[in-house]
Every structure is written in structure tokens, then in C-alpha cells.
Amino acid sequence: MAYLSKILASAAVAVTIYTGAAVSGVADDKPAGGEVVTRRLSQEQYRQVITDLFGPSIKVGGRFEPDIRRDGLLAMGASQVSVTASGLEEYDKIARNIAAQVVGEAHRDTLIPCKPANAKAADDACAGQFLAETGKMLYRRPLTQDELQSRVKVANDAAVGLKDFYSGLGISLATMLESPKFLFRQEIAETDPDHAGQFRMDAYSKASQLSFFLWDAAPDPELLAAAEHGDLNSDSGLAKQVDRMIASPRIQGGVRAFFTDMLGFDEFETLAKDSMIFPKYSTKVAKDAQEQTLRTITDLLVTQKGDYRDIFTTRKTFITPLLASVYNVPFVAPAGGWAPYEFPAGDSRAGIVSQVSFVALHSHPGRSSPTLRGKAVREVLLCQKVPTPPANVNFTLVQDTKNPQYKTARARLGAHATDPTCAGCHKIMDPIGLGLEAFDSGGSLRSSENGDTIDTHGELDGMKFTDAAGLAQAVHDDPAAPSCVVSRISSYGLGRLPGKGEADWVKTLQAGFKDDGYKFPALLRRIATSPEFYRIAPPQTGALDAPSKLASQAP
Amino acid sequence: MFLMNTSGAASPRIRRIAVCLTALALPMMAASAAAAETKSFVISYFYDANFSDGKTDCPAGLNMSAIDFYRRDLAKAGHSHDEIEAALKDFPGEGGLKQPWVPLVVTRGNGKDNVYAHPETMADPGMIEVSGKYSYGFNLDGKGAASPSKFEEPDTHEQGVNNGLYKVEGCIRSYRGLPPPGRPSLPENLWDVLRDVMPAWLITVTAADGFGKDGPVTVTWDRALERITRDASGAVAQADMTYQVDPDPRSHNELKGQIKGNVVTVEPAKFNMVLDPYLQPEIRFEQTHMRINIAADGSIRGVLGGYQPWMTVYYGFADQGHIKEYAGSINLPALYYALKRNADYDPDPKTGQNRQISSAYLLEGVPAYVIPATNKTAAADTDSSAKAR
Predict the structure, then answer these.
(1) Are residues A332 and B5, on separate chains, in Cβ contact within 8 Å?
(2) CB-CB: which of B3, B240, B374 is closest to A325?
(3) DSSP secondary-structure letter at A70?
(4) pLDDT digits (tens, 9 = 90+) for A97-147
(5) Is B376 in CB contact (< 8 Å) with chain A?
(6) Which of A2, A343, B215, B232 is the most buried (most CB within 10 A)?
(7) Among B121, B143, B160, which residue terminates a domain?
(8) How far apart are CA A193 and CA A215, in angstroms?
(9) How far is CA B385 from CA B163, B195, B227, B369, B380, in A?
(10) Within a domain: residue B168?
(11) B 250-309: CB under 8 A from A
């Protein structure tokens, strides 16, 4: 265990395996690519891999290591995390539990492609077949001969000791499930034969890059086969796979994963509301609210192939009876589930910013927050950095919602902003968030606060509006919004911020997004078919040997 | 479709409705009154209206707890002290019918018949009844201060309030609503369990001249196809949920009445709502009275009263036999005799025994959308949930 922990911790450091010729020749005029990243699978990705491989009847229990948000995305945090000792224990428990289910009597006949000659003894052939097939899907590449032999040996040794083939197989499977080769997506670089002096991901790394980007899942057999045959190294072969994956219903999973990350929905796990003040807001509402936004987005972007900017203004959405109660609209859904719903023209609900998921997430437990909401519009939707407040700010005035002198948030913030140390930042956030003041912290519509009528006029970088729908239109019309999503999804796919050498590539993507009418699938295709998406910076001198040795030691 | 809502939260939509109604009415403005408005509610709580101030209601004390009246009743039935104590050694214990005390108390009348199904196999064990001044409810018999009932309504100060059910129940520990208008613990608990599995109860008030002025109203009570959804507090129903009206006419009531200020009252009428055997199979009133106060936040509190068959009330208790007795400290044969004794309406032409007892229930509700049944799946869902219970 200690050894494995050491290996896993080491894997958190970017492990790059460079293969092929040494760096030589003269670099051509292509961008040099970015540093390699090694990303820990997210909980959702881990679960998806297990479901894809073994089916939904295999339950994944346990507590995963928490993800970390960096530069606005968990996907970038995933390349900067390690595995703690306690986290490794959890991975071990999860792995053993999954393995036990897979080799258990209820599943072995369907999940193990062969039967041992003797169920009470080791069986090289059957163990080898299962571990080779399963290992390929878990490691997202074929196992090397050494890797396979070592896994078969583990299975055989355990089978002999336990006098049970399946128990031995389960132990071997568990070691694969807690291997860094499964838990971490390791990029392997190779020289790019088409561009002298440059490196690119090898075909299997490309396959993973592509699959996790588009589907938030590990490569399927067809993609692995394309990698094996070298198809991903040709423009046409890559495009064929990209088009196949974008045409698949599974693209919805990838789009949902990206927006779940971009919109910070993981923060719902710790979001609390005062149920005495907001009795309609519950954990079920929170869950439905996230789903509503994701359905709104995927329907518009993927199913309808609409304009990305319209996610900020569309009145078409999906709701449940519970959400309908928060939106205060009559609604009966088939079997109590989801159904399409369209807010009428003129309604204050327009686009995702006025949905419960946004206004509730960016509020305090007991009151709304124009500041947090304005900050979120800037940082999440427009990719603009808002400075953090000084440590010695006195928030008393803003927090005192019962102050008879300042009955509304606008009044309180106005008083607060008379402090010049506060005013600078508040003026770039509050005028945005005040447009959403018709929605309380629980997401419900309101017209007054403490008896005073709520004024929802505001401004976004010179675009003035009178209500939430006006704000929605302002965000829609802000060129920063589509540029932001291009930057975000580029970073999301790369697992890092684009480097200086990739700035032109991002600009090209942004221009292309506009040319494509802001169609999101077209943006995904542009990224996924870009050589830049797979390009890796040349290694620094002396960086070639050590990681290779490390990788060869890993189980 | 009926629409509702008084809360300021939904005012834009309400305004839209008002605008639409106004627009429709414009050509007829000279001849018509203000547009009718409708508000609908789902009931969060419904419980016995027992005014328990802890001072004047039960000056003679409270009724015995179960283990005490079991000892007394079993001794009267001829069981020896040792036999009784041996049976009650682990009272109430676990294991249901296998508990040694269960068969003894179930047959404590004549030693063989179920005393809950045949309470008259046992002599009246006696029940301490309410003798206080106040009771929620209504002057059902119209006799006012001249009524044999001496109760005064604590909120309206109406004299001669008839509430025989409260008189019977009010000194049973688990049926005391402390402090007024508190929910008695056992009825609250039963409703709390029941409302998650039974169809919701709906009230719709249509004010002919709108809610801004006094005037005639029509009040409908219905059952929904859906159950309530609890809000984040877990205590009350989520406001503004949508409910479909169960077309079953057994639970459809249309009452005429008045609104004065924010208080809705109805003219006496017959009333029937299917409830659930877990609590009581149905609420069936004659001379139904109702008073509902619509609060500024859109919620309602109110009282529903009338005469109802006391045997139905009794079997609502007796359905669970010894469980209800020990859980609620309710001596069921004593309850039977007390209900019979306090029945005050509808005498049997042959025996003269009144067949109905004056009663009142308190209710609490929140705004809801109430629409005609449109979705069969929802009904099936409700049915399956009920079966699961």
C-alpha cells in the first residue's frame, strides 16, 4: 500500500512519457503546444467508466477524493491534484467492492468472457483473457506484455492461495482499478512526423483526450481501435471519429459535464438556505434546478443546434412539478417527471441566469446577493476576473437586512459603496446583480423587500437594462460571452490554460465559433479536430528519462 | 383551470390574470360587477379542534394512561393481580400480537369477543370529559347562548358552540392541543404520516366580486390525484404546487358562503370527504360550517365543523384497537360510550339515540394551483403509492 501511495502521489506530478526520436531538427511555424498534464479521473468519470465497462448493475460506493477548482474549472484542478493516504484507502475500498461484484456469482457469467477449467484453481488463459480485455478499457490502451503478465500472476497467486479462481481474479482487477494508470489520465508524447521538432500525443492519449472531452468518458472500443490502427493520426481518420462521437447521443453527457463544471454546480453540495426564510428551497429543488439548467443548455445547443448566446435569453426550458412551485406556475408533468415548459414573453425569467440554479447558487443562505450574482456573471459567464475584497471590509451594513433605513439590497449596497475601498469593485458587480433582485435567495420571484418595491434596473458595461430579461439580453449581446465559453472549453479539454503559443489557436476558435453562428457542436468539432488540441511542447533537456523510469515501475 | 395566490411573490402573474379579466370585462363594465377571483389551497394539516389551555379545560384531571386503565379494566374483568402484572410485565414491549397483554385487553369485555368491535361487551369504564368554557367550533344547533352546550368560541366569542367530539376527546392526553390552537399530538402525528400517502385535500375559494371587497363566495373542497409535497422545513406543504382534482364525486363539495375581510364562511350544507381508514374513513358532515382566514402571506387557517356519525368516528379509533389504546392512552370502550353519550344530533326514530355528534377540525393550508384532472399517469402514481403503504 505504501508503495502504491508513493506511486500515486508521484503521478500527481505531470508524468510525461516521450517516445520516439530525440528532439532534433528545426521547429516549423506551428504553435509549440502546451505542457503535458496528468489528470485524475473525476468521480463522475470514474463512475462512467465502470458503468460503460461493467454495466449499471455494478454499484460504485465510497467517498471519492474531493476535486479542486483551478482557474474556474474542476477540469483544470484535476491536473493539479494528488491522492491522499485516506483517499487511497477509499480508492482501495471502492476498487475491491467493484471487483467483488464483477467476479461475484451474480455477474461473473455475463462479465467474464470465459470459464476457468477449475473454479478452485488458477487459470492462466481465462485470467489473461479477462484482464487483457478489461485492462485495455481501464488503462485506455492495450496492456503491455509485462503489465498483463504481472496482473495474471497476481490473479493466479491469489487463486492458489484462496483456492478460488474468481477471488484471485477479483484481487487482480482491484489492483488495476486502483492503479494510477487507471485513476490518472497520463498523456504520452511522441514526435510529430509531420512537424519536425514537435511533439504530439500518441494515438491512445489522443483517444482519451477526445473521449473525455466529448463524452466525459473513456474511449469506446471503436475509438481505441481507431487509435490502434493509427487512424487518429490522420486528419480524415480523426474527423471521422469526431463526427461519430458528436453525432452520438453520448455527446450530451460531455456537454453536460462541461457546463456542470463551468457553472460551478459542485458548489451546490455545500449550498445551504434558511428553510424558515425560503421554505420552497430544498435539496430536491437544488437537484432539479441544476438538471433544469443542464437540460435547457443541452436541448438548445445539442438537440436544437441553436446559438450559444441564446442560453442567456431562451424562455424554453424543462421543469418538474417541484420547480414549477418555485417558479409559481401551474404545471403537471407526466408521471411527475420532467416536461418542456416555456415562460411567456415578457416574463422575468429568461435564460439560465434567471433560473433557480444561478440565482440560488450565487446568494447567501438568508438573503440574495447582487454582488455575488454580478461577480458570477463576470467571472463564470464572461471570464472576467473580479478582485477579491480586502480582508478588513466591514460587511455589517450589507448583512443587516432588517435595517429600517436600508430596506432593499440596492439601498444597503448603496450605503456600503460610499466606502471608497469598496466602491471600486462593487461598481463592476452590483449593477449587474441588481437586475436579478426580483429573485430571492431561494430562486422565487418577489416584488418587494421589507415592504419596499424592488428596483431591478442595472447596467452591464454600458448596456443598461430594467430587469432580469434585460440583463439576459445584455449578456447575450456581450461579445465576451461567446469568447468566454471558447476559452473555458479549450482549457477544459486541455486540462490547463492555453499557453502563450496557443493564443492564436484560441482566437481562431473564437472567430470560427462566430462564423459557425455560435453553434456549440461546431465549436467542439473545431477543437477536437485541431492538431493544437493534441500538441505537446518539446521536453526540456533531461526530462526524457526520469518519467519513463517512473512509469515503468508503476503496477 | 382555477388559479390562485395571494402572496406578493407571484404578483406579476396575478396582475396578468387581472388584466386579462379586466380586458374581457371592459365591454360589459357598465353592467357587471368586479371580476371574480379565485384562490386555491392545499391543506397541510387537518386535526381535531381541541382547545386545551391547560387551565380551565379539564379541572377534573386527565384520563388515565393505558397501563393504568388496563390494570383497572382487567381487574374488573376478573383477572387476578398476578395474572395482570405478569401480562403487563413488558408493556408495551415489541412483537405486536404476541405480547401477553394483548389478548387479555382485546377481550377484556366478556373474555372472548374483541372489545373494540363489540365495545358493549364491556360496561362503560368512564371517561373524564371537558368541562371548560371554550371550544373551537360553531353554534350548529342555532340556539346560541340558550344551547345546552355552554362552550364559547375562543376566537369569535360565539356562544353555544356545539363540539361534542372535543368534549369527549379533550381530556385524553394525546388529544390535547396545547397551547391553543396547538395540534393535538396524536392527530398531528397521524395526519403527518397519512398526508405523505393519501391524496391531498384542496380548497378553492371563488369570490364573485373579487377578494378586495366583501361579498359572496363559492368554496369547493376536493381531493387531489397527487399527494402533498413537503417544503424544506418538512412541516408544511410546499406552496404553489399544482394539483389535479380527483373527479370522484364522493369528495367534491361545493359550498356557498361569504367573504368579509379575509374571512370566508359558508352556509350550512352537507359535506363529505374521503379520508383514510388509518385516521378515519371519511369526514361526513351535516350542518357544515366553515371559517377560513386568508393570511397576507397567502396561507390559510380555519375551522371546519358539523355533525358527523359518531360510529364512524369511533371506528376510526377502534380500527387499530390496542395499538391506538396504548399509543394514545385512549380507552376505546370508554370512548365509545362517551361518543354515544355526547351525540347531539339526528336521533334514531326508534330508540331516540342520537346518531351524530357535533365536531370541529382545525385546518392549515398553503396556496396551490388546482386544475382539472388531465393526467392519468399521476393518478396511477398516487394509487401505487397508496398500495405501497
Answers:
(1) no
(2) B240
(3) B
(4) 999 999 999 999 999 999 999 999 999 999 999 999 999 999 999 999 999
(5) no
(6) B232
(7) B121
(8) 29
(9) 35, 12, 9, 22, 9
(10) yes
(11) none
Is residue B44 domain-shared with residue B117, that is, in the same domain?
A: no
Residues B154 and B273 in one domain: yes
Of A328, A332, A445, the CB nearest to B375: A332
| Residues ≥6 apart with Cβ < 8 Å to B169 | B48, B50, B175, B184, B335
Report residue B6: phi and psi, to 5°: -110, -15
CB contacts of A347 in chain B (<8 Å) are 12
pLDDT at A182: 97
Interatomic CA distance for residues A254 and A216, integer angstroms: 5
Q: Are residues B91 and B49 both part of a single domain?
A: no
Please tell me whether residues B278 and B237 are part of one structural domain: yes
CA distance A525 to chain B (A): 41
| Domain boundaries, given as residue ranges, for chain A | 1-15+44-68+81-183+549-555, 17-37+187-247+479-538, 259-477
B11 CB within 8 Å of a chain A CB? yes
Is residue B236 within 8 angstroms of chain A, CB to CB?
yes
- ipTM strictly over 0.85? no
Q: What is the pLDDT along chain A (555 residues), one digit of tens a residue?
A: 444 444 444 444 434 455 554 443 334 455 567 888 899 999 999 999 999 999 999 999 988 989 999 999 999 999 988 899 999 999 999 999 999 999 999 999 999 999 999 999 999 999 999 999 999 999 999 999 999 999 999 999 999 999 999 999 999 999 999 999 999 999 999 998 888 888 999 999 999 999 999 999 999 999 999 999 999 999 999 999 999 999 999 999 999 999 999 999 999 999 999 999 999 999 999 999 999 999 999 999 999 999 999 999 999 999 999 999 999 999 988 775 999 999 999 999 999 999 999 999 999 999 999 999 999 999 999 999 998 887 777 788 888 888 888 889 888 988 887 777 778 788 889 999 999 999 999 999 999 998 999 999 999 999 999 999 999 999 999 999 999 999 999 999 999 999 888 999 999 999 999 999 999 999 999 999 999 999 998 877 655 544 433 333 333
The DSSP symbol for A232 reads G
Query: B1, B2, B13, B204: best mutation site toward chain A, by most A Cβ within 10 Å?
Result: B13
Single residue among B99, B121, B143 that ends a domain in this structure: B121
Task: Give CA–CA dist B48/B305, Å, rounded.
Answer: 10
Q: How many domains does chain B have?
A: 2
Q: Which of residues 447-506 of A touch B (CB under 8 A)?
A: 447-448
> Closest chain A residue to B2 measured between Cα atoms?
A330
Say whether both B184 and B306 belong to one domain: yes
Domain range for B72: 66-121
Burial class (CB in 10 A: 0-12, 13-18, 19+), B389: exposed
Coil, helix or strand for B290?
strand
Q: How far apart are CA B240 and CA A319, in angstroms?
A: 14
Q: Would B24 be classed as within a structural domain?
A: yes
B1 in any annotated domain = no
Whether B97 has its CB under 8 Å from any CB of chain A: the answer is: no
Q: Does residue B318 share a domain with residue B367?
A: yes
Q: Which residues of A touch B241 (CB under 8 A)?
A: 321-322, 324-325
Angle at A318 between CA A313 and CA A322, to 5 degrees: 120
- The predicted-structure confidence for B35-54, as pLDDT tens digits, reads as follows 899 999 999 999 999 999 98
- Interface size A-B, in CB pairs within 8 Å, comes to 82
Model-level pTM greater than 0.90? no
Shared-domain flag, residues B145 and B105: no
Q: Are residues B229 and B358 in the same domain?
A: yes
- CA-based nearest distance A447→chain B, Å: 6
Chain B residues with CB under 8 Å of A341 CB are none
Interface of B with A in 314-373 (CB under 8 A): 369, 371
Quickly tell me which residue has 370512548 as its cell: B335
The answer to whether the CB atoms of B231 and A324 lie below 8 A apart is no
DSSP B77: T
Other Cβ atoms closer than 10 A to B323: 12
What's the rounded Cα separation, in Å, for the pair B310 and B287?
A: 15
pLDDT of amino acid B95: 63
